[in-house]
Amino acid sequence: MSRHFVGGSITVLLGLAVLVAAGTLHAEPMSESKPFAEKFLLLQLSDGEPEKQNKVLSVAANLLEYYGPDTIDIEITTFGPGVRLMYADNSRREKITSLMAQGVRFTVCMNTINTIERDTGNRPVLHPESIPVDVGVAHILDEVEKGYVLVRP
Fold first, then answer.
1. Could you read off the pLDDT of 23-32 as tens digits, one per residue?
2. Mean predicted lDDT score pLDDT of the chain
3. What is the 3-state secondary structure (H, E, C) of the chain?
4. What is the C-alpha separation between 105 and 90, in angstroms, rounded?
């Protein structure tokens, strides 16, 4: 092997190592559900007002249209009064189901759901495709550490 070839190969390998370490080149996809995603967004909903629910759903729909459903990974995490978005009888259920069909994930804080049940004696029925997480805020922190960008519309 020539010295030039070995030196060039080492330079290429070092360059790739730097890209991997910087997070520019992923050895494996950041999201299993969206392996070709280039953008990673976490939308927080902690308010129960209908206007806030509409806004978070609108932001998700607009970004799917702008980037395309394969290149953006969107998760909407609900906690506190925001869990009302994921009630099975929510009037926005059709819109939520449409976003889910395009790959948007909806997580629900079970700490909040348990508190509602304890305070009212009734456990809310949730959208059947919602994803339970133990503690919504802790889930947000974990996802941000993985590289998701947090937005609270």
1. 444 445 577 7
2. 86
3. CCHHHHHHHHHHHHHHHHHHHHCCCCCCCCCCCCCCCCEEEEEEECCCCHHHHHHHHHHHHHHHHHHCCCCEEEEEEECHHHHHHHECCCCCHHHHHHHHHCCCEEEEEHHHHHHHHHHHCCCCCECCCCEEECCHHHHHHHHHHHCCEEECC
4. 17
Residue 44 contacts residue 133 (beta carbons within 8 Å): no
Contacts of 133 (CB under 8 A, 6+ apart): 77, 107, 108, 109, 110, 139
Cα–Cα distance list, 76 to 56, 103, 119 (Å): 8, 11, 25
Instruction: Quote the pLDDT of residue 28.
Output: 55
Residue 40 CA to residue 33 CA, distance in Å, equals 12
Provide the token pair at 12.
Answer: 């290429």
pLDDT (tens digit per residue) in 59-109? 999 999 999 999 999 999 999 999 999 999 999 999 999 999 999 999 999
Distance CA 56, CA 78 (A): 10
pLDDT of residue 4: 53
